[in-house]
């Protein structure tokens, strides 16, 4: 047999050339590493939401948390490491890896959808094989059961034999995760080498919507207008449950706000519930909570919390605070509750030192296509809301 006949496929696309003399081709993922700006939020997502097991923690020389390792099956692990400085946000349509993918069983697809929504990370996009969400820093994370579709039909083009030798089906999926995270880390490093980190012009704070389609659209539009936006989001939070997360106490950790054009706030979707009282604050009255049905007391305290929060941002140096009212959802009952939150936010913002109300209520979000889950805005819904509020926001930030 000639060399051409025996090795004719060696250099064709899709074939693997033989390794060099005395070198064995890598056959598995050892570990992967990604840097994040907020290690606590990353831990809450990867351990708390995705339920990956923490196998090791590392501190720096000052005793501060530096790295968290998450097991990915066998000896493979994900190292999530603290970034020493912020990096530019990568847009979805930029060149490079688009997402990271983890394998899930088909039968757990709907359970994962419900869990993600409950934890404040609603599914943003989906196919017959995959659910797509965003981690706390906005990166796309996929949960996939390919090659089997939701109809239970296997993709005829999928070739199980194509997995690297000795790698299980689960680890084969992790190869995609490994390459994606590694590429994202390298891309961020390259971006940091090319240009200095821009100074913040606008701070956007709030709950999960800030990391969802709405927050990313605001960031994209304002950056297109020449402003740099920093997003700070804490999922499933608002002003009703300071025992869970206290936005008032978070203000000092947002840094010096004097150099900003302004702060945008989008909260309220999680506040249609009883108000938990702060024991240390006598202004909030006796008891553990104010029930939702106690409308007069609820309205009075929630309004006060809005005013104090906005005034706290003003006192930290923000020249103006733009409070974007929460939008209605698909459910009549939920929308009726949100109307109370909206009115209290209007009153509380007007009573503040530097607050301005940004009112999106002219946009109907009752169309199911405007939301991803009946509450959180979809890309389509976000665009509709932005087109209405953009003149107000841009005019205020230019002042």
Structure description:
There is one protein chain. Helix 5 (213-224) crosses helix 9 (379-398) and helix 7 (295-315) packs across helix 8 (332-350). This protein has two domains: 31-192, 2,3-Dihydroxybiphenyl 1,2-Dioxygenase, domain 1, CATH 3.10.180; 198-398, Rossmann fold (3-Layer(aba) Sandwich), CATH 3.40.50. 32% of the residues lie in helices and 17% in strands. By secondary structure, the protein is of the alpha/beta class.
Write the layout of secondary structure elements.
Elements: H1 3-7, E1 31-36, H2 39-49, E2 54-59, E3 65-71, E4 77-82, E5 100-103, H3 109-118, E6 125-126, E7 130-134, E8 140-144, H4 169-194, E9 202-206, H5 213-224, E10 229-233, H6 247-250, E11 262-266, E12 275-276, E13 289-290, H7 295-315, E14 321-324, H8 332-350, E15 355-358, H9 379-398
Parallel strand pairs: 1-4, 5-8, 9-10, 9-11, 11-14, 14-15
Antiparallel strand pairs: 2-3, 3-4, 6-7, 7-8, 12-13
Helix pairs in contact: 5-9, 7-8
């Amino acid at each position: 047999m000639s060399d051409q006949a025996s090795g004719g496929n060696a250099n064709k696309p899709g074939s693997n050339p033989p390794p060099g003399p005395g070198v064995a081709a890598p056959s598995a993922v050892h570990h992967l590493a990604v840097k994040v700006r907020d290690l606590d939020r990353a831990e809450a997502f990867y351990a708390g939401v995705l339920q990956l097991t923490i196998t090791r923690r590392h501190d720096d020389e000052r005793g501060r948390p530096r790295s968290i390792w998450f097991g990915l099956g066998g000896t493979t692990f994900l190292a999530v490491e603290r970034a020493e400085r912020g990096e530019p946000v990568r847009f979805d349509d930029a060149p490079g890896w688009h997402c990271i993918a983890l394998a899930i069983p088909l039968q757990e697809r709907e359970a994962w959808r419900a869990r993600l929504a409950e934890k404040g990370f609603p599914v943003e996009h989906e196919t017959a094989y995959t659910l797509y969400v965003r981690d706390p820093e906005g990166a796309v994370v996929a949960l996939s059961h390919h090659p089997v579709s939701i109809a239970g039909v296997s993709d005829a083009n999928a070739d199980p034999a194509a997995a690297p030798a000795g790698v299980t089906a689960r680890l084969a999926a992790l190869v995609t995760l490994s390459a994606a995270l590694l590429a994202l880390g390298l891309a961020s490093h390259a971006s940091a080498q090319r240009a200095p980190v821009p100074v913040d012009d606008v701070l956007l704070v709030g709950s999960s919507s800030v990391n969802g389609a709405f927050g990313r659209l605001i960031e994209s539009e304002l950056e297109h207008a020449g402003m740099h936006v920093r997003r700070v989001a804490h999922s499933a939070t608002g002003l009703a449950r300071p025992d869970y997360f206290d936005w008032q106490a978070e203000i000092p950790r947002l840094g010096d706000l004097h150099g900003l054009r302004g702060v945008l706030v989008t909260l309220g979707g999680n506040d249609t519930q009883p108000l938990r009282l702060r024991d240390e604050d006598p202004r909030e009255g006796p008891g553990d909570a104010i029930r939702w049905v106690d409308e007069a007391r609820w309205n009075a305290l929630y309004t006060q919390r809005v005013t104090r929060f906005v005034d706290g941002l003003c006192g930290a140096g923000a020249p103006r605070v733009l409070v974007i009212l929460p939008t209605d959802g698909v459910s009549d009952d939920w929308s009726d509750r949100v109307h109370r939150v909206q009115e209290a936010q209007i009153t509380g913002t007007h009573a503040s030192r530097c607050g301005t109300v940004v009112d999106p209520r002219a946009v109907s979000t009752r169309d199911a296509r405007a939301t991803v889950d009946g509450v959180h805005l979809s890309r389509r819904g976000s665009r509709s809301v932005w087109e209405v509020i953009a003149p107000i926001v841009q005019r205020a930030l230019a002042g």
